[in-house]
Amino acid sequence: MTRKAAKRGDQPRFAVLGAGNVGMAFAGHLALKGFEVALYDRDPARIQPVEAAKAVQVVSDRPDLPQGRGRIALATTHLGEALEFADFAIVCVPCCAHEDFGRHCGPFLRDHHRVLLSPGKTGGALAFWHAAMVAGCPATPVVAEAQTVLYASQVTNPGQVRISRVKNGVPVAAIPSARTTELTACLSQAYPEFLPAETVMHTSLGNTGSVFHPAIMALNAARIESSRGEFEFYIEGVSKSVANVLERMDRERTELALHLGFGTRSAREWLAVAYGAVGSDLFEAMRANDGYYGIKAPHRLSHPYLVEEVPATLVPMASLGRHYGCPCPTIEAIIHLASTMTSTDFWALGRTVERMGLAAVPLKELGKAVREGPPIPPAPNAAAAHASRTQLTQEH
Fold this sequence. Notes:
This protein has 18 helices and twelve strands. The protein is α/β, with parallel strands linked by helices. The strands form two sheets. Strands 5-2-1-6-7-8-11-12 form an eight-stranded mixed β-sheet, sandwiched between helices.
């Protein structure tokens, strides 16, 4: 069954793409707010309970957080059907899948679509945009990324999600950057928490999780495996020497941002602004953050903090550094260490300048490419485009 997209200017219809922990929170909460929502996932086992109930059940232990039965207008395993239903798509797939997902979405996107990656990590919107255009996207939709996830949430039963936190403010930037304000104005009807950022490079390089998560995981590998994560991740997992590594990585991140022409806060500055936690160095500032106490470490190394964040945050930073003449040796060392300990080539899997569409963009033109979108590759011939669209339609 197909549905007409919402009329422009009306309350937006949303398609939430991905029915995992974050996607289910978006779908249920949007529905509770009174918006029409389509929920897509390629896995029928995730969609069938929502389709049968025509709802997502949202639960919470706190009265100030959303809870209730959110009615879902459409639950589907067909990507094209979900995008046809909506004019605002929120992409909640694993970050390392953004490029592939952009390729699948490309043939179905139209000029009226606004796409938000939640989150984009490092270069997510650029990779999605480039992949969609290579796949023969017939339009120029707005593609945006959130710097981090809005929800702390977990699917607890089929068709049910528990929301334990909603962040107060999350920066968002779009391609093209001139339409960020328009996008956040539309999005603010549902989420005033999303705040406009200057460009997608600011959101990409401003994510301090890229500094904290992979390195703490890698440098605590033996402890994670032997204790199954029975220690406090940000406190016991960060000794003075581990904090020295984090601080060096953070310096490489901020120096790269400055070299590319996009300033960003240091991790210490971010801790002071976000949590009021200050210290003479990163070690002391992290110790001063009350929010870090009591958070247990992941119980396995095959956790998104390592296997998703290394290819989706550290690899793109290191690739940008290599390509534009600002090396990031400590970041590269953590990539190499994570690759070795997991027997995974994260360089081969990760988001590089080629996958972000920036390989042919000189440094002096990088700002324009980030603001307007990377150069659009030549359109495929008609036969190839038709074959690609047919294949993707059959897959989704």
